[in-house]
Design brief:
The complex is a heterodimer of chains A (125) and B (537).
Chain A lengths: L6 H19 L4 E6 L2 H5 L2 H14 L5 E6 L11 E5 L5 E3 L4 H13 L8 E4 L3
Chain B lengths: L3 E6 L2 H5 L2 H14 L6 E6 L8 E6 L3 E5 L2 H14 L39 H6 L4 H8 L2 H11 L11 H10 L6 E6 L8 H8 L1 H15 L3 E7 L3 H17 L14 E7 L8 H8 L23 E5 H13 L1 H5 L2 E2 L2 E2 L1 E8 L5 E6 L4 H8 L9 E6 L5 E3 L12 H5 L7 E6 L4 H15 L5 H18 L5 H17 L3 H4 L2 H10 L1 H8 L21
The structure holds flavin mononucleotide, iron/sulfur cluster (SF4) and FE2/S2 (inorganic) cluster.
Chain lengths: 125, 537
């Protein structure tokens, strides 16, 4: 049985989806988006994702959501992640190896300092 | 404050040129020479761009552009230590391009969700207005949908730029018991990867666009013909199709409209010719991928002999946004004859390679410098190929050409699938020509003689030239081969080999002639000594 049979139901799902996304991010201070496109994965994005999740839990940081997404086409500097903290401009980092991911978490998430040598883009993707 | 201040540009483009490394090196040198009491090195945001990293020395108000650590050292030793300005590294302040000049503003229509949503979660797509265009279209009459697409001026992004609304109209008007929508996701063009990123990052946009197309022309079945190596795209598309069925956007009686549509993914095996629309149809039918005679065109006689719309991934991905926001909105972006955006793939010798969506009419230079950050490693740009391997090679004089579907006609610069290949001065023109022709020789399906033999002969001539064995007659013959092959070939592959070849010969004729005189300015080609064969075990 299909879930959506009319525009009204579609709108309901949209509301619900927006709620769900908010829930996922509620009580969170921000999120890290890992670009998991083909070049991203080829460049090691899976290891980066793993390192981020592990390092966050090691540091007992639970107010940062980690999400996956497609890739914005910055092939040259994969793996890329976007760090967006509430009330701040999102920052895209490139060449995020597991080590660099730790540096970013340490500096950007914990100390609030942007890691400028890894930054490739500022503002909305 | 020290008496001398050195500002080093460390914006993101300069970083790619080595700015960070240069700055650190300079600081080390300052210490090494005990200059710290008189010199301060400051990193600053962009001072503008030149060929290298821009350095500004105050109070002398001298600008340098450096490309290597040796040059940094020279500035420290000469200018800072001995007070002698380094003339050969100096750049005129006026020549430094302000950073803003090339800044290009991304406009994201087909890439609006990429990197923003989780492509494997249909609800995130819905949260960003996903499937609202479908719902809206289903409340319009099919010919109103076609009218809207026609009015928007959307043209095919697969290379040829055919008006999409017209194609749909032809198919809608054709009488048949069954019609099809086919999405061309073969993406065989070397250097192109935009379709992959769209399907990977936002598969539902493609699905939604196809359902709308189906409704508009009266087709109830769709195929996505995708390159087999695109594992991630295939996986994401399959998941998305499954979810779309579950939510009732695919299948029977979609959103209670009475309209039904089914969608299947078909994998290609990686032959370039299978991207040609009729070869692609043959391939879906289970035959070997050889082009068909046109006319009749697919809107009349397409898949399994039925009327068929075949559109590129990027073309289809534009559809939901046009339906949702209207043709007038769409026409406000881009140029009058080519509304909307184009997704460009920037490859080759630039600092930042990758994909970017920009309004139609953006210039080659803007893409190259605004997005790409200029030529890599401080080398000189030699030429640019636009539009893919079957596209034009242009010299530096044409960098300011606006890219749209008229740029071929007006400026001899093709837009094609939107690849922009930057080539620096370490490459040889003849060698490039050989590479391009080898691709076409390899991918020629062999069905017709001019293409099969023409590409082979062109390769042979070019190979001779790279060995300094070519003659002036060879060059004339090469021209002729290109023209005859283009005139007499059966399909678009053979018909377009003249474009890259003639643009190379015409724009860089001197370098071809030099090879006849046995020199190669890029030092790529060498005379081959004819040695007796040495027996090896
Ligand atoms: C040799 C050859 C290869 C082609 N490869 C592709 C391709 O990989 N992807 C694509 O979308 N169109 C390709 N095309 C263009 C298609 O034949 C066709 O024009 C296109 O799919 C139409 O879609 P559009 O109107 O949306 O651009 C190719 C054409 C030729 C002659
Ligand atoms: S032009 Fe080339 S690719 Fe096209 S049918 Fe002839 S041999 Fe095949
Ligand atoms: S997938 Fe190519 S840039 Fe990320």
């Amino acid at each position: 049985m299909s879930k959506v049979k009319s525009l009204v139901e579609l709108m309901k799902i949209k509301e619900q989806a927006i709620q769900n996304i908010k829930m996922r991010e509620s009580g969170k201070r921000g999120k890290i988006t890992v670009a998991m496109g083909t070049c991203g994965i080829a460049a090691g994005a899976k290891d980066t994702l793993k390192a981020i999740v592990e390092y966050l839990s090691e540091l007992k940081i639970d107010d940062i959501a980690v999400v996956q997404s497609g890739c914005m086409g910055l092939c040259e500097v994969e793996p890329t992640i976007e760090v967006s903290l509430e009330g701040q401009e999102p920052i895209v980092y490139g060449h995020v190896t597991p080590e660099n991911a730790k540096r970013i978490i340490q500096s950007h998430i914990l100390e609030g300092k942007i890691v400028s040598d890894l930054m490739v883009k500022r503002g909305e993707v | 404050m020290t008496p001398i201040t050195v500002l080093i540009s460390v914006d993101s483009n300069s970083i790619l040129l080595g700015a960070r490394e240069f700055a650190n090196y300079m600081k080390d040198l300052i210490k090494e020479f005990n200059l710290d009491p008189i010199v301060t090195v400051l990193e600053t945001v962009s001072l503008g761009s030149y060929n290298g990293v821009v350095i500004h020395v105050l109070p002398d108000d001298v600008y340098y552009s450096v490309k290597s650590k040796e040059q940094v050292r020279k500035i420290v030793e000469e200018h800072l230590l001995k007070g002698r300005q380094v003339w050969d590294l100096m750049v005129n302040k006026e020549l430094i391009r302000p950073a803003e000049k090339f800044e290009v503003k991304e406009v994201r229509i087909v890439t609006r969700n990429i990197g923003v949503i989780d492509p494997r979660n249909i609800e995130e797509y819905i949260a960003r207005d996903g499937y609202f265009a479908l719902s809206k279209a289903l409340q319009m009459k099919p010919d109103e949908v076609i009218e809207e697409i026609k009015k928007s001026g959307l043209r095919g992004r697969g290379g040829a730029g055919f008006p999409t609304g017209l194609k749909w109209e032809f198919t809608a008007k054709a009488k048949a018991d069954q019609k099809y929508i086919v999405c061309n996701a073969d993406e065989g063009e070397p250097g192109t990867f935009k379709d992959r990123l769209i399907m990977e990052g936002d598969p539902h946009t493609v699905i939604e666009g196809m359902i709308i197309a189906g409704y508009a022309v009266g087709a109830t079945k769709g195929y996505i013909y995708i390159r087999g190596e695109y594992y991630n795209s295939v996986e994401n598309l399959r998941k998305a199709i499954q979810d779309a069925y579950e939510y009732g956007f695919l299948g029977e009686n979609i959103l209670g409209s009475g309209f039904s549509f089914d969608l299947t993914v078909r994998l290609g095996a990686g032959a370039y010719i299978c991207g040609e629309e009729t070869a692609l149809l043959e391939s879906i039918e289970g035959k070997s991928g050889r082009p068909r005679l046109k006319p009749p065109y697919p809107p009349q006689v397409g898949l399994f002999g039925k009327p068929t719309v075949i559109n590129n991934v990027e073309t289809i991905a534009n559809v939901p946004q046009i339906i949702l926001n209207g043709a007038d909105w769409y026409k406000s972006i881009g140029t009058p004859n080519s509304p909307g955006t184009k997704v460009f793939c920037l490859v080759g010798d630039v600092n930042r390679r990758g994909m970017v969506e920009l309004p139609m009419g953006v210039t080659v230079r803007q893409v190259l410098y605004g997005f790409g950050g200029g030529v890599r490693g401080g080398r000189e740009l030699k030429m640019v190929q636009t539009g893919g391997l079957a596209g034009t090679f242009i010299g530096l004089d044409k960098l300011d050409t606006p890219l749209d579907y008229d740029s071929m006609k007006n400026h001899g610069v093709s837009l094609g699938s939107g690849v922009i290949l930057a080539i620096d001065d370490s490459h040889c023109v003849v060698d490039i020509a050989l590479n391009v022709m080898e691709f076409f020789r390899h991918e020629s399906c062999g069905k017709c003689t001019p293409c099969r033999e023409g590409t082979r002969i062109a390769c042979e001539i070019l190979e001779r030239m790279t060995k300094f064995e070519g003659t002036a007659e060879d060059l004339d013959y090469l021209r002729k081969i290109a023209e005859v092959t283009a005139d007499t070939s059966f399909c678009g592959l053979g018909q377009s080999i003249n474009v890259p070849l003639l643009s190379l010969i015409d724009n860089f004729r001197e370098e071809f002639l030099e090879h006849i005189e046995k020199t190669c300015r890029a030092n790529v080609c060498k005379a081959v000594l004819k040695k007796p064969k040495v027996q090896t075990k």
